[in-house]
Write a structure and sequence with these properties.
- With 479 residues, the protein is α/β, with parallel strands linked by helices.
- It has a domain at 16-268: Amidase signature (AS) domain (Amidase signature (AS) enzymes, Alpha-Beta Complex), CATH 3.90.1300.10.
- It is built from 15 helices and 13 strands.
- The protein has an eleven-stranded mixed beta sheet with strand order 1-3-2-6-8-7-12-13-11-9-10, with helices on both faces. A two-stranded antiparallel ribbon has the order 4-5.
- The chain starts with 15 loop residues before the first helix and ends in a 9-residue tail after the last helix.
- The relative contact order is 0.13.
- It comes from Niallia circulans (Bacillus circulans).
Length: 479
């Protein structure tokens, strides 16, 4: 076993390239690096509850990667780098995949999710699985707080545990990466579940175009909106991770739409990326708190200082319902559970509901959404489902984002926080959140850039330019 030397390298706020440089020079090994992160998790996470499970094999994997490092012809940026993933992503290892549900506490996957395979091929170390809002925040309407799961407990925001909302449902990934428990993290989003915790934890979060990243091996909520995406402390790290995660998966047909798209997003890290960009601002999409509105207005000023052309405009907006999500969840979760191992006590949504009724001490916010979804037939040929899906696309894309981009000749849209996230979510379009500062009381907030399908290159240019000009992120002071 390698000798531990915790004085070799400071892990706080470090980036992929900084870590890789230290690994290449021998300043630190992946084993030592992983050990430092595990010790940091053990020291601070009892307050934050962000990590559902540490990978018991992480140190062994790191040691093996160290041994092979000199034998690898070409070291990629993620080789030997600790990564945290959300606990609704399958891993074929000693960690269960639970979606935060006690009913799935012993759900050990038979194979890695497609994106996990790509991470492992790149040499990444899956150091642990992050806690989350149970079933991706799709369990109850009875005021369950963001970040709560019956199995993992309540995730706290490191900038103000018990004070500020941690965001959902990728809350554990958000809190853990903000608290420097790994180099980078991965969340998933159906509507706001990457953008919300990224904004609330002063992180960069990318919700990619539906189809850029495979959904195979991820516990589903709604397949017409579900996607995984990077959650990092810098735009550069998010761009690196996005390129590694992206790829065509024959088992997920929607990824065929990404053929021809870039696989290296670091080419779009341009410090002048805002210059000349026409960005739409709809001021009806504003936060409720005056302090956050003030931060947003300051952010708009900073955009113009970097050469952006802000266009006041109005985007078609109607209130969306959840009919599509209900139908797709019933269809998707039954299909996922049906394939679980015999040791898992539930193999259908109906069985999850019955299991929860015997554990009301931890399933304490109810399961009204689960119970409603169980009344549906899970048939995606249902005319009600198809009608609402067509309406969602028309309102969010054709008459929403598409129409606004075309009418005002825009390169993208900008929103405060994750306000307006339902538009790109329903459309399957990309968004990127970047830290925009803090309220006088210390509450983090981000700016979110949104565009049409596969406009990630332009969004990354804008986000990187803004980040480099402002450098707003400040790490939380952990107790």
């Amino acid at each position: 076993m390698e000798k531990e030397n915790q004085n070799l390298f400071h892990i706080e706020e470090t980036t992929i390239f900084e870590v890789q440089k230290a690994l290449d020079s021998g300043q630190i090994t992946s084993w030592e690096l992983t050990k430092q992160y595990i010790e940091r998790i053990k020291t601070f996470d009892s307050t934050l509850c962000s990590i559902r499970e540490i990978n018991p094999d992480a140190l062994a994997i790191a040691a093996e990667l160290d041994k092979k490092r000199q034998e690898v012809d070409q070291i990629g940026p993620l080789y030997g780098i600790p990564v945290i993933i959300k606990d609704n992503i399958d891993t074929k290892d000693a960690m269960a995949t639970t979606a935060g549900s006690i009913a799935l506490a012993n759900n050990f996957a038979s194979e890695d999710a497609f994106i996990v395979k790509k991470l492992r091929e790149a040499g990444a170390i899956i150091i642990g699985k992050a806690n989350l809002s149970e079933f991706a925040n799709f369990i109850t309407e009875l005021n369950m707080p963001n970040g709560y799961s019956s199995l993992g407990g309540q995730v706290m925001n490191p900038y103000g545990p018990g004070v500020w909302d941690v965001g959902g449902s990728s809350s554990g990934t958000g809190a853990s990466i903000a608290a420097n428990f790994a180099v980078v993290g991965i969340g998933t989003e159906t509507s706001g579940s990457i953008l919300s915790p990224a904004s609330n934890n002063s992180l960069v979060g990318i919700k990619p175009t539906l189809g850029l990243i495979s959904r195979t091996g991820i516990i589903p909520l709604a397949h017409s909106q579900d996607t995984a995406g990077p959650m990092t402390r810098t735009v550069q790290d998010a761009a690196i991770l996005l390129g590694i995660m992206a790829g065509v998966d024959e088992r997920d047909e929607v990824t065929l739409t990404s053929i021809g798209q870039p696989r290296d997003y670091t080419a779009f890290l341009k410090a002048d990326g805002l210059k000349g960009k026409r960005i739409g601002v709809d001021r009806s999409f504003l936060p409720r708190e005056e302090e956050e509105v003030a931060l947003f207005n300051k952010g708009l000023e900073e955009l113009t200082q970097q050469g952006a052309i802000l266009i006041d405009m109005t985007i078609h907006r109607e209130k969306f319902d959840s009919i599509v999500l209900y139908h797709e969840f019933k269809y998707g979760i039954d299909n996922y559970l049906r394939k679980c191992a015999e040791e898992v006590p539930v193999h259908s949504l109906k069985e999850v509901i019955e299991f929860n009724k015997n554990h009301l001490d931890v399933v304490k916010y109810g399961q009204t959404i689960l119970e409603y979804c169980e009344t549906l037939n899970g048939d995606l040929k249902d005319p009600t489902y198809k009608e609402h899906r067509d309406t969602d696309i028309r309102l969010s894309a054709l008459e929403g984002i598409d129409a606004a981009i075309e009418k005002y000749e825009l390169d993208g849209l900008v929103f405060a926080k994750y306000v307006g996230c339902e538009l790109p979510a329903k459309a399957g379009y990309p968004s990127i959140t970047v830290p925009a500062g803090y309220t006088p009381k210390g509450k983090p907030m981000g700016l979110t850039f949104t565009g049409i399908a596969y406009s990630e290159p332009s969004l990354i240019e804008m986000a990187y330019s803004y980040e480099q000009a402002t450098k707003h992120r400040v790490p939380p002071a952990l107790a």
